[in-house]
Amino acid sequence: MIKRKNTSSSFNTGFNLLELMVVVAILGITALIAIPNMSRMVENSQLRSTVNDFSTALSLARSEALTSGSGFVNPVNLGGGASFANGWCVSTAANCAPAIRVFPALTGQTVSGSTASIQFNSRGELVGAAPTITFTPTGCAPGTADRARVIQVEPSGRTSIDSGACV
């Protein structure tokens, strides 16, 4: 005799409403924790990208100085004064003409420190005082440790990038 399986069992497979509500609550709590951390990660990534662009501009100007005799990283002047926040350009002259490469204005960051052109001589050495330039995420409270990036150009022309406090 063949036994048939009872298809009218007393339990159903699947999720009930209470289980579904618990899962949704756990996902909501996880999202509340993850979203602020995600925005800080994006902010730090943008800051790193900006600092890397500035470091690239310094290296390009130094390389140009070795080949042509002088190289500059100039802050862009938009009428309200020259500032690296307005962008910067690499050229063989102090006025961005002719520009070898132009970098866009900052978005989401502030810059402080030197606003003067950075010049390298034919040996790749820095001409003038050694500048320190600090890039800070917008909205970073002053004194907050390790959120800003500080670029120091040494007299030899070498650059260093360190973490610093927000200004």
TrEMBL record:
Keywords: Cell inner membrane, Cell membrane, Membrane, Methylation, Transmembrane, Transmembrane helix. Signal peptide: none annotated. The keyword Iron-sulfur does not apply. The chain crosses the membrane at residues 20-38. InterPro entries: N_methyl_site (IPR012902), Pilin-like (IPR045584), T2SS_GspH (IPR022346). It is found in: Cell inner membrane. It comes from the Bacteria. Belongs to the GSP H family. This is Type II secretion system protein H. It comes from Saccharospirillum mangrovi. The lineage of its organism: Bacteria, Pseudomonadati, Pseudomonadota, Gammaproteobacteria, Oceanospirillales.
